Amino acid sequence: MPTANAYAATSSKSPLGPLAIQRRELGPRDVLIEIKYCGICHSDIHTVRGEWGETTYPIVPGHEIAGIVTGVGAQVKKHAVGDRVGVGCMVDSCGDCSSCRKGEEQHCLRGMVGTYGATGRDGQLTQGGYSTHIVVTEDFVLKIPEGISLDAAAPLLCAGITTYSPLRRWGAGPGKKVAIVGLGGLGHMGVKFARAMGAEVTVLSQSLSKKEDGLRLGAHHYYATKDPETFKKLAGTFDLIVNTVSAKIDLDAYLSLLALDGALVNVGAPAEPLSVNVFSLIMPRRVFTGSLIGGIPQTQEMLDFCAKHHIGADIEVIPASKINDAYERVLASDVRYRFVIDTSTLK
Ligand code: NAP
Ligand code: ZN
């Protein structure tokens, strides 16, 4: 069995540290990937710290994986040794239910298999991308187009698709006013995509400290949500708001910023429940909804869109020894705008 060097958490309270793990032998439809880079998503932190329910330890997080194919099973058709590839939040699904048939594998009726912390169809606990190698069935391996460097591509596999999908679903484009709440890993990708799709883009951040960056990333406007004037000034403005915040926010205040038939899509996934006053929805017929990553076909579409529009994530590449520091910086909203682990430092 291929051995991989990895970084793992052994409890919700202990820092992550080195661990050697075994990957499964290559099955006929499996691809062996040498991971080059892996992004740090806030979901890794929620999971490691047990905020979303029970976590099985040790856990190797990481679902923003970019690397090179180094081996393929006998029946693999989609990928070849040497290909530049990525893996996101899923490594398998049933392939047969109505969701999978529509290419919405993230909503597999039999349950998609998460890249880490899930039970794979081989019965093994899945372990993620803070590691040197991974074995994944070919259907869940994406092609990273030439023109996007592997380090800047890694965060596209989660932060990218998670923002691209609701922007497409809710029609971000010319003539549409789109707000992105929270300028972190997801938020900065949301700004880039909404701009590239042709929308008028506003960032709603806690303060104005990242305003220059927000405008450089593509926003037309930038407001601080700690300033109550922001909510008065922007009342009834937006066709679409994508909330990427990892903590509880006052949804009614944000819903008041939507125009008639506007939609607020929650992608942020705080453990704490959010509450809504129904009058925030009834009055100008507003929509409050959510969105979960995106299916495999749309993830490939997003990667191709990135190549066409020269989009990658803004990243800070770190060695494995800095993972625990990076977690603290993410929690302090001090990320510009995604930490990416250089897996050659996993020894
Ligand atoms: P992140 O990099 O930490 O960004 C979150 C941003 O939210 C921060 O940069 C900050 O932006 C803002 N924020 C943080 N705490 C806040 C607070 N108390 N009040 C107001 N704003 C606050 O995290 P991420 O990796 O982008 O992930 C964001 C959330 O999405 C997480 O909950 C994650 O689990 C979830 N997620 C969901 C999906 C999905 O499929 N739905 C996929 C991936 C991740 P400012 O400094 O600009 O205010
Ligand atoms: Zn993620």
UniProtKB/TrEMBL annotation:
Q: Which cofactor does it need?
A: Zn(2+)
PROSITE patterns named among the record's database cross-references:
ADH_ZINC
- What are the UniProt keywords, alphabetically? Metal-binding, Oxidoreductase, Zinc
- One Pfam family in the UniProt entry: ADH_zinc_N
Gene Ontology molecular function terms on file: alcohol dehydrogenase (NADP+) activity; zinc ion binding
Among InterPro entries, the record links this protein to:
ADH-like_C, ADH-like_N, ADH_Zn_CS, CAD-like, ER, GroES-like_sf, NAD(P)-bd_dom_sf
The reply on keyword Transmembrane is no
**Domain Enoyl reductase (ER) residue range list:** 9-341
Q: Does the keyword Metal-binding apply?
A: yes
* Similarity comment text for this entry: Belongs to the zinc-containing alcohol dehydrogenase family.
What protein name does the entry list?
A: Alcohol dehydrogenase
